[in-house]
Write a structure and sequence with these properties.
Layout (H helix, E strand, L loop, with lengths): L1 E5 L15 E7 L2 E6 L2 H12 L5 H8 L5 H9 L3 E4 L15 E5 L3 H5 L4 H16 L7 E4 L2 H9 L26 H9 L6 E6 L4 H16 L1 H6 L2 E6 L7 E3 L2 E5 L5 H6 L2 E4 L9 H8 L4 E3 L16 E2 L5 H11 L2 H19 L1 H11 L7
Parallel strand pairs: 1-3, 4-5, 5-6, 7-8, 7-11, 8-10, 11-12, 12-13
Antiparallel strand pairs: 2-3, 9-10
Length: about 375
Amino acid sequence: MVLVYSIAGRRDDYSLRKRQQYRLDAIEPGLSEEVNLGLGFGLLQAMARVLDLPRLWQYCALRCGIVPARLLRAVRDADLVVSDLSYTPPIRGLSRHQPWYLISHQLEHRLLQQASALHRHCAARIMRRIESTAPARYRDIFACAEEDRAFFRAHDASGLLRVPIIRCAVDSSAYVPQPGARRRVRKDLGVADEDVLLVFSGSHFGPNLAALERLKAFARAEAAFLRQHRILFLVLGSIEPVAYREGSLIATGRVPEVVSYLAAADAGFNPVTTGAGANVKLFEYLAARLPVISTEFGVRGSGLRAEADFVPYSPDDPKTALIRFVTERTPAQWKQHAEEVWSRHKGSCDIAESVRAAVAQARDFPPA
């Protein structure tokens, strides 16, 4: 039995009409989620979002023993506990009862170093201290990239941490499109068969937004070049709040699913140059069997190699990668190339295989 415990809910959960202290959702047999809806943590979360503050409040509250009673009971009854992110530390007084593990989606202090001045000069330093002492608090740590693994191992005084890697993988079976999806979506978007459609998928997140602004500037400055080579960019997801078409840019806004849009694309495009951890979009491109055009930074945590597995892209010289993609291979050849890349990297890109391999490496973690 697995219980996922969320320390606070979403905005819609805090309705005066349905006032409750918690909500328990059955996800599937043996897996449920409990959401704490107490006003204390809800208000802290709301204020932190309004003030653009990181989740240091959550770390401080739990570390000081301010813990919901139901969470305390759940932890006491657990055989092992997995903390999601370094903001969720082991609870003092209980961490000796069973092994605690950490899932580190990214080095949070690296992300904070790229944010506002307050985050860079204050929050990032505090977070770095928290993450550097994490090896002393957990039985083992699951990281998503080699850089993260190196950081935790460098701060492990015991030398016992293995730090297995669970990459930002996906359920590959969910990326099989419905028959006819490619033709239907391209028709809806006004994309001709001869057009080359590059999909840039992402959420409304700082590194994605910075990359999008550079892409917009390039699209405006090189409109004639893009028209000549029939290159279009599909900006997919909540990275743009509304749908629009402007020159070579097509934005969808938030969509109910991404699989059909990925099927409509000719390549997955990842122009990001900032951030931390690994990009989920990259693993979605691979699972959708799309060839990849990416910055070197954008493939971190994936194991992909330039030239052999993806076309390297530089924001300082976008034309080189784009010309290579439209001239070096035919669409059929690119499709075959994408299949070969997936075959080489499936073990680290499919979530089931990635988790199974990581659990087998973790110290004292029960077999999957």
